[in-house]
Amino acid sequence: MGSTQFGNFHNFCRDSTLPVCNLFSESTTSEGFGGCRLQGIPLSNGRQLANLGSIILCGLAILISILLLWRSERKQAAVGRREIQLFIIGYIIVEICEIFTVGGFPLSRNVRLGFTAVHLGAIVATLWVLLLNGVVGYQFLDDGTPMSLGLILASAVALFVGTGYIALDTGFSWTGRFDESLTDPNRNIGLYVLYQLVPLVFLVLFFLLETVLVLRVLGERKPMLYLLAAALLFAIGQIFQYVISTHICNATSGKINGALFETLFTLASVVMIWVFWSSITEDDWPMPVAGGTYT
Fold first, then answer.
1. Whole-model pTM?
2. How far is it, in rounded angstroms, from Cα 36 to Cα 51?
3. 176: number of Cβ within 10 Å
4. Is the CA virtual torsion 77, 80, 84, 85 positive or negative?
5. What is the pLDDT of residues 6-34, one digit of tens each?
6. In angstroms, rounded to a whole number, what is the distance separating the alpha carbons of residues 117 and 127?
Protein backbone atom coordinates (compact mmCIF):
# COMPACT_ATOMS: atom_id res chain seq x y z
CA MET A 1 0.00 0.00 0.00
CA GLY A 2 3.02 2.25 0.22
CA SER A 3 2.67 3.27 -3.43
CA THR A 4 -1.01 4.22 -3.15
CA GLN A 5 -2.72 7.35 -1.83
CA PHE A 6 -5.02 5.31 0.41
CA GLY A 7 -4.60 6.52 3.99
CA ASN A 8 -2.69 9.67 3.04
CA PHE A 9 -3.95 13.03 4.28
CA HIS A 10 -1.24 15.38 3.00
CA ASN A 11 -2.93 16.38 -0.27
CA PHE A 12 -6.31 16.76 1.42
CA CYS A 13 -4.78 19.01 4.06
CA ARG A 14 -2.89 21.00 1.42
CA ASP A 15 -6.04 21.77 -0.58
CA SER A 16 -8.75 21.82 2.12
CA THR A 17 -9.42 22.92 5.69
CA LEU A 18 -10.18 19.68 7.50
CA PRO A 19 -10.25 19.26 11.29
CA VAL A 20 -8.17 16.09 11.07
CA CYS A 21 -5.26 18.12 9.72
CA ASN A 22 -4.79 19.74 13.13
CA LEU A 23 -3.39 16.41 14.31
CA PHE A 24 -0.53 16.49 11.82
CA SER A 25 0.56 20.14 11.95
CA GLU A 26 0.61 23.06 14.37
CA SER A 27 -0.76 25.28 11.59
CA THR A 28 -4.55 25.68 11.54
CA THR A 29 -4.67 26.26 7.78
CA SER A 30 -3.47 24.58 4.61
CA GLU A 31 -0.26 26.62 4.78
CA GLY A 32 1.31 24.00 7.02
CA PHE A 33 1.03 21.52 4.14
CA GLY A 34 2.20 23.83 1.36
CA GLY A 35 -1.24 25.15 0.48
CA CYS A 36 -2.90 28.56 0.38
CA ARG A 37 -2.60 30.58 3.59
CA LEU A 38 -5.79 32.04 5.05
CA GLN A 39 -5.06 35.62 6.07
CA GLY A 40 -7.97 36.02 8.47
CA ILE A 41 -8.31 38.88 10.93
CA PRO A 42 -5.13 40.02 12.69
CA LEU A 43 -5.21 39.94 16.49
CA SER A 44 -2.67 40.92 19.13
CA ASN A 45 0.78 39.35 19.43
CA GLY A 46 0.84 38.25 15.80
CA ARG A 47 -2.17 35.96 16.20
CA GLN A 48 -4.93 35.61 13.62
CA LEU A 49 -8.58 34.59 13.50
CA ALA A 50 -8.49 32.65 10.25
CA ASN A 51 -12.02 31.54 9.33
CA LEU A 52 -14.45 34.18 10.61
CA GLY A 53 -17.06 33.28 7.97
CA SER A 54 -17.06 29.63 9.07
CA ILE A 55 -17.34 30.66 12.72
CA ILE A 56 -20.39 32.83 12.00
CA LEU A 57 -22.06 30.08 9.96
CA CYS A 58 -21.35 27.53 12.70
CA GLY A 59 -23.09 29.83 15.16
CA LEU A 60 -26.03 30.14 12.77
CA ALA A 61 -26.13 26.36 12.36
CA ILE A 62 -26.31 25.89 16.13
CA LEU A 63 -29.22 28.34 16.42
CA ILE A 64 -31.13 26.71 13.56
CA SER A 65 -30.50 23.26 15.06
CA ILE A 66 -31.95 24.39 18.39
CA LEU A 67 -35.02 25.58 16.47
CA LEU A 68 -35.30 22.16 14.81
CA LEU A 69 -35.06 20.49 18.21
CA TRP A 70 -37.92 22.63 19.46
CA ARG A 71 -40.09 21.95 16.42
CA SER A 72 -39.37 18.23 16.70
CA GLU A 73 -40.47 18.30 20.33
CA ARG A 74 -43.85 19.68 19.26
CA LYS A 75 -44.42 16.73 16.89
CA GLN A 76 -45.67 14.51 19.67
CA ALA A 77 -47.04 11.76 17.41
CA ALA A 78 -44.11 11.64 14.98
CA VAL A 79 -42.27 8.36 14.45
CA GLY A 80 -38.59 8.64 15.37
CA ARG A 81 -38.93 11.98 17.16
CA ARG A 82 -36.35 11.22 19.83
CA GLU A 83 -34.03 9.58 17.33
CA ILE A 84 -33.99 12.60 15.00
CA GLN A 85 -33.36 14.80 18.03
CA LEU A 86 -30.29 12.69 18.86
CA PHE A 87 -29.01 13.32 15.35
CA ILE A 88 -29.56 17.07 15.69
CA ILE A 89 -27.80 17.14 19.06
CA GLY A 90 -24.86 15.34 17.48
CA TYR A 91 -24.80 17.91 14.69
CA ILE A 92 -24.76 20.72 17.28
CA ILE A 93 -21.72 19.14 18.94
CA VAL A 94 -20.01 18.90 15.55
CA GLU A 95 -20.66 22.59 14.86
CA ILE A 96 -19.43 23.69 18.29
CA CYS A 97 -16.19 21.82 17.70
CA GLU A 98 -15.89 23.20 14.16
CA ILE A 99 -15.73 26.73 15.56
CA PHE A 100 -12.47 25.84 17.28
CA THR A 101 -10.98 23.30 14.84
CA VAL A 102 -11.74 24.90 11.47
CA GLY A 103 -12.54 28.42 12.64
CA GLY A 104 -8.91 29.18 13.36
CA PHE A 105 -9.28 30.47 16.93
CA PRO A 106 -5.87 31.23 18.49
CA LEU A 107 -5.84 28.31 20.92
CA SER A 108 -3.00 26.33 22.46
CA ARG A 109 -2.11 23.22 20.47
CA ASN A 110 -3.23 20.85 23.24
CA VAL A 111 -6.67 22.46 23.47
CA ARG A 112 -7.05 22.36 19.70
CA LEU A 113 -6.10 18.68 19.65
CA GLY A 114 -8.77 17.99 22.25
CA PHE A 115 -11.45 19.77 20.22
CA THR A 116 -10.26 17.96 17.09
CA ALA A 117 -10.61 14.54 18.72
CA VAL A 118 -14.14 15.39 19.89
CA HIS A 119 -14.95 16.80 16.43
CA LEU A 120 -13.85 13.67 14.57
CA GLY A 121 -15.56 11.35 17.03
CA ALA A 122 -18.76 13.40 16.86
CA ILE A 123 -18.80 13.29 13.04
CA VAL A 124 -18.61 9.50 12.96
CA ALA A 125 -21.08 9.03 15.83
CA THR A 126 -23.58 11.55 14.43
CA LEU A 127 -23.65 9.95 11.00
CA TRP A 128 -24.09 6.55 12.64
CA VAL A 129 -27.11 7.97 14.48
CA LEU A 130 -28.40 9.28 11.15
CA LEU A 131 -28.08 5.80 9.63
CA LEU A 132 -30.01 4.31 12.54
CA ASN A 133 -32.69 6.95 11.95
CA GLY A 134 -33.09 5.34 8.56
CA VAL A 135 -33.62 1.98 10.26
CA VAL A 136 -36.13 3.37 12.78
CA GLY A 137 -38.71 3.98 10.07
CA TYR A 138 -39.02 0.22 9.50
CA GLN A 139 -40.17 -0.20 13.12
CA PHE A 140 -38.07 -3.25 13.97
CA LEU A 141 -38.15 -1.78 17.47
CA ASP A 142 -40.62 0.70 18.88
CA ASP A 143 -39.15 4.16 18.39
CA GLY A 144 -38.48 6.39 21.39
CA THR A 145 -38.27 3.48 23.85
CA PRO A 146 -35.38 3.08 26.31
CA MET A 147 -34.16 0.07 24.32
CA SER A 148 -34.18 1.92 20.99
CA LEU A 149 -32.49 5.02 22.36
CA GLY A 150 -30.11 2.96 24.51
CA LEU A 151 -28.87 0.90 21.57
CA ILE A 152 -28.37 4.01 19.46
CA LEU A 153 -26.53 5.89 22.20
CA ALA A 154 -24.35 2.94 23.25
CA SER A 155 -23.20 2.18 19.71
CA ALA A 156 -22.66 5.88 18.95
CA VAL A 157 -20.58 6.33 22.11
CA ALA A 158 -18.44 3.32 21.14
CA LEU A 159 -17.69 4.88 17.74
CA PHE A 160 -17.07 8.27 19.36
CA VAL A 161 -14.61 6.87 21.88
CA GLY A 162 -12.77 4.71 19.34
CA THR A 163 -12.34 7.52 16.82
CA GLY A 164 -11.48 10.04 19.52
CA TYR A 165 -8.81 7.80 21.01
CA ILE A 166 -7.05 7.29 17.69
CA ALA A 167 -7.14 11.05 17.11
CA LEU A 168 -5.71 11.80 20.55
CA ASP A 169 -3.03 9.11 20.24
CA THR A 170 -2.06 10.57 16.88
CA GLY A 171 -1.87 14.16 18.11
CA PHE A 172 -0.26 13.53 21.50
CA SER A 173 1.84 10.48 20.48
CA TRP A 174 0.82 8.55 23.58
CA THR A 175 1.90 5.16 22.24
CA GLY A 176 3.91 6.22 19.20
CA ARG A 177 1.75 3.91 17.06
CA PHE A 178 0.72 6.73 14.72
CA ASP A 179 3.89 8.85 14.79
CA GLU A 180 4.65 8.13 11.13
CA SER A 181 1.46 9.99 10.20
CA LEU A 182 2.94 13.24 11.55
CA THR A 183 5.20 13.57 8.51
CA ASP A 184 4.49 13.75 4.77
CA PRO A 185 2.45 11.97 3.35
CA ASN A 186 0.61 11.90 6.72
CA ARG A 187 -0.58 8.31 6.33
CA ASN A 188 -3.04 7.21 9.02
CA ILE A 189 -5.12 4.24 7.94
CA GLY A 190 -7.30 4.20 11.06
CA LEU A 191 -8.39 7.82 10.78
CA TYR A 192 -8.68 7.58 7.01
CA VAL A 193 -11.16 4.73 7.29
CA LEU A 194 -13.08 6.19 10.24
CA TYR A 195 -13.14 9.83 9.09
CA GLN A 196 -13.16 9.60 5.29
CA LEU A 197 -14.80 6.28 4.39
CA VAL A 198 -17.07 5.11 7.21
CA PRO A 199 -19.19 8.32 7.30
CA LEU A 200 -19.66 8.05 3.52
CA VAL A 201 -20.87 4.46 3.88
CA PHE A 202 -23.29 5.53 6.63
CA LEU A 203 -24.67 8.31 4.43
CA VAL A 204 -25.15 6.08 1.38
CA LEU A 205 -26.92 3.42 3.47
CA PHE A 206 -29.17 6.05 5.06
CA PHE A 207 -30.26 7.41 1.68
CA LEU A 208 -30.84 3.88 0.35
CA LEU A 209 -32.91 2.88 3.37
CA GLU A 210 -35.01 6.02 3.21
CA THR A 211 -35.51 5.68 -0.55
CA VAL A 212 -36.86 2.14 -0.14
CA LEU A 213 -39.03 3.25 2.78
CA VAL A 214 -40.60 6.13 0.86
CA LEU A 215 -41.07 4.45 -2.51
CA ARG A 216 -41.80 0.85 -1.57
CA VAL A 217 -43.30 1.02 1.93
CA LEU A 218 -45.07 4.39 2.01
CA GLY A 219 -45.70 4.60 -1.73
CA GLU A 220 -44.98 8.35 -1.76
CA ARG A 221 -43.04 10.53 -4.20
CA LYS A 222 -42.92 14.07 -2.80
CA PRO A 223 -40.64 13.27 0.20
CA MET A 224 -38.02 12.07 -2.28
CA LEU A 225 -37.60 15.67 -3.44
CA TYR A 226 -36.48 16.63 0.06
CA LEU A 227 -34.20 13.61 0.35
CA LEU A 228 -32.59 14.25 -3.03
CA ALA A 229 -32.17 17.92 -2.14
CA ALA A 230 -30.37 16.92 1.07
CA ALA A 231 -28.03 14.61 -0.86
CA LEU A 232 -27.33 17.24 -3.52
CA LEU A 233 -26.64 20.00 -0.99
CA PHE A 234 -24.28 17.77 0.96
CA ALA A 235 -22.44 16.78 -2.23
CA ILE A 236 -22.04 20.43 -3.24
CA GLY A 237 -20.58 21.20 0.17
CA GLN A 238 -18.02 18.43 -0.21
CA ILE A 239 -17.07 19.68 -3.68
CA PHE A 240 -16.40 23.11 -2.20
CA GLN A 241 -14.32 21.56 0.56
CA TYR A 242 -12.23 19.06 -1.39
CA VAL A 243 -12.10 20.46 -4.93
CA ILE A 244 -12.81 24.18 -5.11
CA SER A 245 -11.43 25.35 -1.75
CA THR A 246 -7.84 25.92 -2.83
CA HIS A 247 -8.95 27.83 -5.93
CA ILE A 248 -11.20 30.12 -3.86
CA CYS A 249 -8.37 30.75 -1.42
CA ASN A 250 -5.91 31.65 -4.18
CA ALA A 251 -8.45 33.79 -6.06
CA THR A 252 -9.30 35.82 -2.93
CA SER A 253 -5.67 36.13 -1.78
CA GLY A 254 -6.37 34.02 1.28
CA LYS A 255 -9.46 35.89 2.48
CA ILE A 256 -11.81 32.85 2.34
CA ASN A 257 -11.76 29.25 1.19
CA GLY A 258 -14.20 26.41 0.63
CA ALA A 259 -14.70 25.65 4.34
CA LEU A 260 -17.21 28.49 4.60
CA PHE A 261 -19.34 27.09 1.79
CA GLU A 262 -19.02 23.52 3.07
CA THR A 263 -20.47 24.64 6.40
CA LEU A 264 -23.30 26.49 4.64
CA PHE A 265 -24.31 23.63 2.34
CA THR A 266 -24.01 21.03 5.10
CA LEU A 267 -26.35 23.12 7.24
CA ALA A 268 -28.82 23.31 4.35
CA SER A 269 -28.55 19.53 3.92
CA VAL A 270 -29.30 18.91 7.60
CA VAL A 271 -32.34 21.19 7.39
CA MET A 272 -33.60 19.26 4.35
CA ILE A 273 -33.12 15.96 6.19
CA TRP A 274 -35.31 17.31 8.97
CA VAL A 275 -37.90 18.51 6.44
CA PHE A 276 -37.82 15.05 4.84
CA TRP A 277 -38.32 13.37 8.23
CA SER A 278 -41.16 15.77 9.05
CA SER A 279 -42.85 15.05 5.72
CA ILE A 280 -43.03 11.28 6.29
CA THR A 281 -44.13 11.30 9.94
CA GLU A 282 -47.47 11.84 11.55
CA ASP A 283 -48.13 15.42 12.60
CA ASP A 284 -50.32 16.81 15.32
CA TRP A 285 -49.73 20.51 14.74
CA PRO A 286 -50.22 22.77 11.70
CA MET A 287 -47.37 23.54 9.32
CA PRO A 288 -47.30 27.03 7.79
CA VAL A 289 -47.45 27.22 4.02
CA ALA A 290 -47.08 30.00 1.48
CA GLY A 291 -49.33 32.98 2.02
CA GLY A 292 -49.46 32.56 5.79
CA THR A 293 -52.24 29.94 5.73
CA TYR A 294 -52.17 26.60 7.51
CA THR A 295 -53.09 23.09 6.57
1. 0.90
2. 13
3. 8
4. positive
5. 989 999 999 888 999 999 987 666 666 87
6. 16
